[in-house]
Design brief:
With 624 residues, this protein is α+β, with helices and mostly antiparallel strands. Among the domains are: 46 residues; 224 residues, Beta-galactosidase, Chain A, domain 5, CATH 2.70.98. It is 38% helix and 17% strand. It contains 18 helices and 18 strands. α13 runs antiparallel to α14 and α13 packs parallel to α15. The longest helix has 26 residues. It is elongated, with a radius of gyration of 26 Å. The N terminus is likely disordered.
């Protein structure tokens, strides 16, 4: 530690408080001790545990005896999970056959059939730019691998690609197909994948040991694979011994690499859910029940911390809310496997989490994008419509509006309209890394067809330019001061946004903020069943010489045609709605929309600008 930084660290510890500071310091010390010991072991390929070592530590005996105990373990509480998806035999087998032949669509790569598994490369970038550096060094100790950001609009290699592939989400599909058909091709594919992964990813070496979150999710998927394949007569005990020993490596790794900071996030939750699954898997070993109990308490504590009482995730993103909901749902299922009872308050709030997803769903498959979206899931199918319908709170009769004040989102939903309005809601204890500059932004769908959309998140570290473009105020459906972000992007801060604290008022359809040091407000109302009125106001404008801008990003399938001051919005060449404003002259410009991480498609946006003093501005949207 540099002496000049000592006051900074003292101030930081004071801000954390004694209990949190002690936890952070203890975690850092444990990580440091583990690193010092493990570095030498890993460099000499001796870090991985063998079964004899594990057996000696726990008095577990020979592997064949332990394996007979393991085979009795079954995820009984989860037997009906994804019942609809797995009952579609044709679709299941088609996807399993694709995976058995090394064909993947990873983070925007589109379908790629691979000759050799690219565990250490951004194979997506390789196909786009063959001259680019797309490889990560698989020989480096995991702590020595740096993640460098691209500084221009040309993408550099993305470590999330090998991470995503190494989460092994495809094991669930292979396992489910094997369980249904008993076809050996799926068991052999699973075995080949695991053996190749273990050969190419020695414990603690290479990119796939860098991020604890991904280690936890991989462990979770491997435990599920065990559940599907454990009774296969064609997988030999030698394989299973190596598989089980590697899972113990995963457990050891997580115990020494918790992502514990002053503001924990979905990363720590992913660490914990993977660890919780591992403590169930190794439940026959001495002392594992104590570890499971500790983990359960941590997950309950994080549930209270990270999920608001209204049932929304405190990271301010609908996509990450969906991931966090999936994590806590599997926590609920695994707690039954462990024999732990859950408090009624947990179940009540968990239902609220599913309810939020339901309100934010435009269609069965399409969730409104608010904040970051890295397309992350715990298991292959993620949170399905069937799970939402089963676990959501039943809405009141004729309930069309819902206001999630802590998250900062008003939602209107009926058969004709789906509309959201983003409020400036933020509390100091929330992480800000997944927030966007989207204050007063709206999304709009008509009859289940998205019209005005949030742009999504294209990439993170591969390009600072693209990262900031997709989270900027100019990409969202709001009004703003020209060339000025509502919250400035500081240098090299891809995962922070210095959002000032603000509590939301009680009016769901009026947003007020002071992010430009000029009070601003947006009010949304329904003039009648066919017309939405948006009223935008800058207060106290005399003396200011800024230019004000408006933006509406159109969904890729929406085309816009101008007639006078009105813009006709068409879907499939049929008029869907009209945007009209007598105060502004809108122009159509090219833009981008990211349906998922790593994938962007062209779209259009309507943009207007005028002197700051013209107000109020009234914009009407009329559906046909």
């Amino acid at each position: 530690m540099k002496i000049t930084k000592f006051p900074h660290y003292v101030k930081k510890l004071y801000q954390l408080g004694p209990r949190t500071a002690a936890k952070v310091i203890s975690n850092k010390m444990q990580n440091s001790f583990f690193e010092q010991y493990a570095r030498y072991q890993a460099d000499h390929k001796k870090a991985s545990y063998s079964w004899p070592t594990i057996a000696y530590k726990y008095g577990a005996g020979e592997f064949k005896d332990y394996w007979s105990l393991l085979q009795k373990r079954s995820l009984t509480a989860s037997q009906e999970l994804y019942e609809k998806q797995l009952s579609d035999t044709e679709s299941l087998m088609h996807q399993a056959d694709s995976f058995a032949n090394n064909c993947f669509d990873i983070l925007g790569s589109r379908d790629q059939c691979l000759m050799v598994m690219p565990w250490h490369s951004d194979f997506r970038l390789r196909y786009q730019h063959p001259d680019a550096d797309y490889l990560f060094d698989k020989s480096l100790f995991y702590k020595d691998i740096s993640i460098n950001s691209g500084l221009t609009d040309r993408l550099v290699k993305d470590i999330k690609v090998p991470w995503e592939l190494s989460r092994c989400a495809h094991f669930f599909v292979l396992g489910a197909a094997f369980k249904k058909s008993n076809e050996l091709v799926y068991a052999r594919a699973f075995q080949d994948y695991v053996q190749d992964w273990l050969d190419e990813n020695p414990f603690l070496l290479g990119p796939n040991w860098v991020c604890p979150m991904d280690v936890g999710i991989r462990a979770f998927n491997w435990v599920w694979a065990f559940h599907f394949f454990k009774d296969s007569q064609d997988i030999d005990p030698v394989f299973w011994e190596r598989f089980v020993s590697s899972l113990y490596d995963h457990l050891t790794y997580l115990e020494n690499n918790w992502e514990v900071y002053n503001k924990t996030s979905n990363h720590y939750l992913s660490d914990l859910i993977g660890y919780y699954a591992l403590t169930w898997f190794f439940g026959d070993l001495k002392g594992m029940a104590k570890k499971a109990s500790w983990c359960q308490k941590q997950l309950l504590k994080e549930f209270e911390k990270q999920v608001f009482e209204e049932g929304t995730d405190y990271e301010g993103s609908t996509a990450y809310h969906r991931l966090v909901t999936e994590i806590f749902y599997h926590f609920y299922l695994l707690s039954q496997e462990h024999g732990f009872s859950m408090p009624e308050s947990f179940l009540t709030k968990l239902r609220k989490m599913f309810t939020f997803i339901d309100w934010c769903s435009v269609t069965d498959q399409e969730l409104v994008k608010i904040g970051d979206d890295d397309s992350g899931k715990l298991l292959y199918y993620g949170i399905t419509k069937e799970l939402v319908d089963e676990l959501k709170t039943i809405p009141k009769a004729n309930e069309k509006e819902k206001f999630f004040r802590e998250f900062g989102l008003a939602v209107y939903k009926d058969a004709q309209w789906h509309m959201t309005l983003r409020h400036h809601a933020y509390q100091e204890q929330q992480p800000s890394g997944h927030f966007h500059n989207d204050v007063a932004s709206i999304t709009l769908a008509i009859k289940g067809i998205p019209v005005f959309v949030d742009p999504g998140s294209y990439v993170y570290t591969p390009s600072e330019v693209w990262r900031n473009k997709f989270r900027s105020i100019t990409a969202h459906n709001s009004f703003y001061v020209e060339d000025v972000e509502s919250v400035l992007f500081t240098e090299r801060s891809l995962f922070t946004l210095d959002v000032p604290e603000n509590k939301v008022g009680h009016n769901p359809w009026k947003v007020t903020h002071n992010l430009y040091s000029i009070p601003a407000s947006r009010t949304v109302s329904f003039e009648n069943e066919k017309i939405v009125l948006i009223e935008d106001v800058w207060e106290e404008v005399p003396g200011h010489t800024f230019t004000s801008c408006w933006n509406f990003t159109l969904a890729p399938h929406i085309t816009a045609q101008k007639e006078g001051l009105a813009w006709h919005l068409l879907y499939d060449d049929k008029l869907l709605a009209t945007l009209q404003c007598e105060d502004l002259v809108f122009e159509r410009k090219d833009s981008w929309f990211a349906p998922g991480y790593g994938h962007k498609v062209p779209c259009s946006r309507l943009v207007a600008r005028c002197d700051l003093g013209i107000q109020p501005v009234k914009i009407r949207i009329k559906r046909v």
